[in-house]
């Protein structure tokens, strides 16, 4: 008779024990999901920062390459101009030695109707301009190389951040739903929503 009276109480006690265990598990799961959501938020921000950094480096490298292209064209133009100037100087030096009636050492003619004139005074600065342009080109080459290395480093960091974020999503899926690929990133709850779920579970 006593056992019959205690049976409902025992059943109720066992039911409440199960409910408490279920509630504890639910609370622990909510805490873990909140932690994973916060981790995802941090990794997402990190990825966005690395993507922005890599894009900035890509733009800087593109500008450095344009600057270098312009500098290389300027050096090429000055080299061509310098060559023409040296040829004029050589012709003018030869013309200065011509003697009326004496044969030209180049063509052999005794007549010299249009001897070459000396280079304009401004041309004497051409070698200096060329040297300055070459130095500028060298500096821009170093800048281009630096930007290229910087882009490679930042791209590697961006790729690493993408992999880290992917693993963060996979962890969330495994713990929330028991599978590696369960949802789009946009469906992962924000830390605020996860905290709200934790309050409800508590």
Describe the fold and architecture.
Helix content is 78%, strand content 0%. With 202 residues, it is mainly α. The chain is rod-shaped and about 150 Å long.
Summarize the structure.
With 202 residues, the chain is an all-alpha fold. It contains 3 helices and no strands.
Descriptive terms for the model:
rod-shaped; 0% strand; mainly alpha; 202 residues
Q: How many strands?
A: 0
- Percent helix, as a range, is over 70%
Radius of gyration: 41 Å
The H/E string reads HHH
Q: What is the distance, rounded to the nearest whole angstrom, between the alpha carbons of the first and last residues?
A: 40 Å
- 3D shape: rod-shaped
Secondary-structure-based class equals: mainly alpha
Which regions contain 5 or more consecutive residues with pLDDT less than 50? none
Oligomer: single chain
Strand content: under 5%
Number of helices: 3
What is the average of the pLDDT values? 81
Major sheet attributes = none
List the helices and strands and how they pair.
Layout: H1 2-96, H2 126-177, H3 191-201
Helix pairs in contact: 1-2, 1-3
